[in-house]
Specification:
Distance between the termini of chain A: 63 Å
Number of domains of chain B: 1
Largest sheet of chain B: 9 strands, mixed
Oligomer: heterodimer
Helix content of chain A: 25-40%
Number of helices of chain A: 20
Low-confidence stretches of chain A: 1-6, 301-314
CATH superfamily of chain B: Spore Coat Polysaccharide Biosynthesis Protein SpsA, Chain A
Number of helices of chain B: 5
Strand content of chain A: 15-25%
Helix content of chain B: 25-40%
Distance between the termini of chain B: 41 Å
Structural class of chain B: alpha/beta
CATH architecture of chain B: Alpha-Beta Complex
Radius of gyration of chain A: 26 Å
Largest sheet of chain A: 9 strands, mixed
Number of strands of chain A: 16
Order of helices and strands of chain B: EHEEEHEHEEHEEEHE
Largest interface: A-B, 31 and 34 residues
CATH class of chain B: Alpha Beta
Shape of chain B: globular
Radius of gyration of chain B: 17 Å
CATH topology of chain B: Spore Coat Polysaccharide Biosynthesis Protein SpsA, Chain A
Strand content of chain B: 35-45%
């Protein structure tokens, strides 16, 4: 007898390893692909864009979000999308990611043969699942070879309708109907799918997958509307969207297709059932023998166990993380011929020659085909702030033909592998990330997202600015100084859809600078707080200035658009803002 | 014959520590010490890498991995010394004493591959030795918890030391200070590392010297380095 919410035995849980163990033959014609992406958490868009660049075919992009303000940010983030057309729509904030995709973009499913369903997945309700998004994206879009493998499966097996990532082990306890069964059963009945209380369950956990549009036809034909979905209140279970997520495989079967789960090597703690395929014939054999039909299991009466709870093993967790790191660092990525890094040296000062020599040494170790130049910061016609000098340096670097400009802020030493590391990491982000080098040792390191090295702002003695960031932002705000200008540039870049990353292999030596504290720092902090509309920080800095008998700065900066404010990770403690990182 | 500059001995016990060695050596190459009478020139830095019974192939890997760093400092030289004898099993102390034997400068120090120095750390200590005539100068080092994977290191939060280092009583110090000693002010019989101290041979060495000779502690209040722990 099947227990409620049970799944089928783990021995039947085969998944296909991608990339395939052979080079798939070219497709007779490029597949007709639409990417349907619901963008609620905009800070994740740079990461998703970088992954989407791995699709080696034309692909039209349909993005939904929930406000006009967010629409502008989304459009900025995907500006220059050259795989196909881009359409951004503002849709009601209900039905999680499911309603925008199935209702808002229902007609897109009629026009394309293949779809990729994605969304900006945050899992704050379960911190143990923090790496889930990275796993899903890596499995669906980890490399062009992964995507070619997906379409090889679709080509070799026309009856495969949906490919979804295997469940991460931490999630298995939640692979059950839970509070969603009644809603799911009612909806399934409308599609003609019998769903007894003890029906076995499997589904694309995370709600991201590759699919033939025909495999979703029973669901699309229900003509659901936004009114069918409850208002968004941060529900983590028990809504129509959660019920639909659990029905995708059954819908696929009802449409006459099979489905299969996919995995990427090293990403799961437990590799049981992950199957590597070495050729087209083994692929066909695997798919013919290992596809599971939930609708067939539903009719069986033998007992099956609950999904096993697999304890994550630290060593394997680290291995999974390492796969994401390699991806973020661009380890496996070939650098396109002619990519150019320009290193702009600071004004002459003691130690300048050593820094220049180390910069040349680093450029000599660039990969074959990459270009590098060292230029000096042009002399200013009259005195100017460091921020003005930095903008002059950036303009000089891009005028010299740079794709990426590395600004060195102080005399010191550059590690010979730093130039390569920065160029590779920049390329891995599609040239859309502001990068921060490391000042060794790191005395007060910023919090770094250990999945992809995201940081809230890039600063310190070595900042690498790609051309796209410079073109979009215009460089540093010359009304701000030092790290306040760095924070401002980083946050504007984030608001315009760029990533901010820490490059752990780009090492620099620089003597620690002075901590920025005192009236000048408080004034700068106040300017930044006013510009970014942070009332709490503004009050803090005003109070600090009042204590010193100082007046607020005049003129005050123009504020950024309100919708950008969410991109500013303003530290609550002014002392932290002024802390010395080097 | 005494050589100008200072000697730094670094022990490498395991080839898997190569990424840490790279970071450590890089931080050492930032230790240029301007000659007092001629700021355009630096005193030589003699780096001695003591290998713990490495195979020929492993030694070649180390040589190749350190090659890229060599052009960074023309005043620094790196020499590898590989202990090939089968005995003793534990080479922690013998490698340091061998380091004392093969080095020829007046000023001597040793450092672990998990240690990173701030630029100018040795210059500061050397200046103190010359100014005060002390036998040894020490500087503050903090412990920092990090995560290593391959050549990627992610520092976690800064961890302040549990207690300040007191040269005559290093027990309980969170990280051993960085030190530089003046061999001209120390008798040869005291220049030896010994086994048996619970905090290790370097702690014993520093404790013993600090109990008998003048130690300059000016930089125990200034941070000069970081000791990384997993």
């Amino acid at each position: 007898m099947l227990r409620e919410g049970s799944a089928y035995p783990l021995e039947q849980e085969f998944s296909l390893e991608l990339p395939l163990g052979y080079m798939p033959p070219p497709l007779p014609a490029p597949p007709h692909i639409a990417v349907v992406l619901h963008a609620f958490h905009l800070d994740l868009l740079p990461e998703i864009r970088a992954y989407l660049n791995h699709i080696p075919f034309p692909a039209d992009l349909f993005v939904s979000t929930d406000s006009m303000a967010k629409q502008q940010v989304v459009e900025a983030c995907f500006s220059g999308w050259n795989h196909g057309t881009l359409k951004v729509r503002v849709l009601p904030n209900c039905g999680r990611d499911v309603a925008p995709k199935l209702v808002g973009f229902a007609t897109v499913h009629n026009r394309y043969e293949y779809l990729l369903h994605l969304h900006t997945k945050h899992s704050p309700h379960a911190s143990g699942l923090a790496g889930w998004r990275g796993y899903l994206l890596e499995t669906l879009l980890g490399s062009p070879e992964v995507v070619r493998g997906v379409f090889e499966v679709f080509a070799q097996a026309p009856r495969i309708g949906l490919l979804a990532p295997q469940h991460i082990d931490d999630l298995r306890p939640w692979i059950r109907w839970g509070a969603n069964f009644e809603l799911a059963a009612a909806l399934a009945a409308r599609m003609g799918i019998p769903l007894p209380r003890r029906a076995p369950l499997d589904f694309p956990s995370g709600s991201m997958f590759w699919v033939r549009s025909a495999a979703l036809r029973p669901l699309l034909d229900l003509n659901l509307s936004f009114a069918d979905f409850p208002d968004e209140r941060g529900q983590t279970d028990g809504t129509l969207a959660h019920a639909i997520e659990r029905l995708y495989f059954l819908v696929c079967e009802q449409a006459g297709f099979d489905w299969m789960k996919i995995s990427t090597r090293g990403q799961l703690h437990d590799q049981k059932g992950v199957t590597a395929i070495t050729g087209p014939e083994p692929l066909k054999r695997f798919l013919s023998r290992r596809c599971v039909r939930l609708s067939a299991l539903r009719d069986e009466t033998r007992a099956v166990e609950d999904h096993p709870i697999i304890t994550a093993q630290p060593a394997k967790l680290r291995r999974a993380l390492h796969v994401l790191w390699r991806h973020a660092l661009g380890d496996a990525l070939p650098l396109p011929h002619g990519r150019q890094l320009v290193i702009v040296l600071p004004d002459e000062a003691p130690g300048h020659d050593r820094l220049a020599e180390s910069a040349y040494a680093a450029l000599r170790r660039l990969p074959s085909g990459a270009l590098g130049r060292v230029v000096a910061t042009p002399k200013l016609e009259r005195d100017g702030s460091d921020t003005i000098r930095r903008n002059v340096a950036l303009r000089a670097g891009f005028a010299a033909g740079a794709d990426l400009v590395l600004l060195l802020g102080a005399p010191g030493l550059m590690h010979p592998d730093s130039a390569s590391a920065l160029l590779r990491m920049s390329e891995a982000q599609g040239g859309r990330a502001l990068l921060e080098g490391i000042s060794l040792p790191q005395l007060a390191p910023k919090p770094v997202d250990d999945k992809d090295f995201t940081i809230s702002w890039a600063g310190g003695p070595a900042i690498a600015v790609p051309r796209a960031v410079f073109n979009a932002t215009g460089g540093f705000d010359e009304c701000l100084l030092g790290r306040f200008a760095e924070m401002d540039l980083s946050w504007r870049a984030r608001a315009l859809g760029f990533a901010i990353r820490h490059c752990p292999r780009a090492l620099f030596l620089a003597a620690p600078g002075d901590t920025e504290a005192g009236p000048q720092a408080w004034t700068q902090g106040l300017r930044l707080a006013i510009k970014w509309g942070n009332a709490a920080a503004k009050a803090d800095f005003m109070a600090l200035l009042r204590e010193l008998g100082e007046q607020p700065p005049e003129p005050q900066p123009d504020p950024v658009p309100v919708e950008w404010r969410a991109f500013a990770d303003f530290p609550r403690d002014p002392a932290v803002v002024c802390r010395n990182e080097t | 014959m005494e050589l100008a500059g200072l000697d730094v001995v670094i022990r490498l016990h395991d080839i898997s520590e190569l990424p840490r060695l790279d970071h450590c050596l890089f931080s050492l190459l930032g230790q240029s010490i301007p000659v007092t009478s001629d700021a355009d020139h630096c005193e030589p830095l003699w780096l001695h890498l003591m290998l713990h019974r490495f195979s020929f192939a492993e030694a070649q890997v180390v040589r190749s991995a350190t090659q890229a760093l060599r052009p960074l400092d023309k005043t620094a030289s790196l020499t590898m010394h590989n202990w090939e004898l089968p005995e003793p099993f534990d080479l922690r102390v013998p490698l340091l004493n061998w380091g004392l034997e093969v080095t020829k400068c007046r000023y001597f120090t040793c450092i672990g591959v998990s240690d990173l120095l701030l630029p100018g750390a040795y210059a500061k200590l050397l200046a103190r030795l010359r100014l005060t005539g002390a036998a040894m100068a020490v500087g503050r080092v903090i412990t920092q918890r990090v995560r290593w994977w391959g050549d990627v290191v992610l520092p976690l939060v800064e961890i302040p030391p549990r207690s300040a280092f007191v040269p005559s009583r290093p027990e309980g110090a969170d990280a051993l200070p960085v030190f530089l000693l003046d061999r001209a002010r120390l008798p040869t019989h005291d220049l030896v590392f010994r086994v048996g101290h619970p905090d290790g041979e370097v702690a014993e060495f520093m404790q013993r010297l600090s109990s008998q000779y003048e130690i300059d502690t000016r930089y125990m209040t200034d941070l000069l380095g970081v000791h990384q722990v997993l």
